[in-house]
Amino acid sequence: MHTLIQYQLVRGFHPLIEDVKSPKIQGNISVCQAFDLAIQLESDVTASLKGLIQLADSEGDRHCADFITSTFLQEQIQSTNELWHHLTNLKRMNDNEHALYHYDKQLSKKFAYDIKGMNLRN
C-alpha cells in the first residue's frame, strides 16, 4: 500500500484510500472456510489490480500499467497460489485433529511470530 501511495504522490496525484471490506462471518468457521475466505479476498484484490491495469492501458499510461504489473500482480498471484496449496493440504487431512495440529506446528515454524509484540520474527 505504501508503495502505491508513494507512486501516486510522485506522479502528482492525491491518493484516495478506502477500507477493505471484511467478509461477513456468521459464528465459528473451520480452517478450510477461513482459507476459502482468504482466497476470495486475494482474488478480489487481484481483480482490482487487473482493472487498474486495464484502465491505465485504456488511458495510454503504460508506465502505470507496468508499475502495477511488476510491483503487485506477481505477488498477488504467488499469494493466491500459496493459499490454494494450503487449502488443498488441509482438505486432504479431512478434519483429522492430529494432522491439523502437526500442520499448524509446521506453519508456525515457517511463519513465526512474537505473541507479546505480534511482530514477525522472519
TrEMBL record:
Give the EC number: 1.16.3.1
What reaction gets catalysed by this protein?
A: 4 Fe(2+) + O2 + 4 H(+) = 4 Fe(3+) + 2 H2O
Alphabetically list the UniProt keywords: Iron, Iron storage, Metal-binding, Oxidoreductase
Is Iron there in the keyword field? Answer: yes
* A GO molecular function held by the record: ferric iron binding
Q: List the Pfam families hit by this protein, alphabetically.
A: Ferritin (PF00210)
Name the enzyme's class: oxidoreductase
Q: Which GO terms describe its cellular component?
A: cytoplasm
Q: Output the superkingdom of the source species.
A: Eukaryota
Q: Which PROSITE patterns match?
A: FERRITIN_LIKE
Domain Ferritin-like diiron, residue spans: 1-94
Which residues does the record give as Fe cation binding sites?
Answer: E42, Q76
Gene Ontology biological-process entries: intracellular iron ion homeostasis; iron ion transport
The UniProt function text for this chain reads:
Stores iron in a soluble, non-toxic, readily available form. Important for iron homeostasis. Iron is taken up in the ferrous form and deposited as ferric hydroxides after oxidation.
Q: Which PANTHER family does this chain map to?
A: FERRITIN
Q: Which family does it belong to?
A: Belongs to the ferritin family.
Q: What is this protein called?
A: Ferritin
- Look up and give the organism this protein is from: Danaus plexippus plexippus
Lineage, please?
A: Eukaryota, Metazoa, Ecdysozoa, Arthropoda, Hexapoda
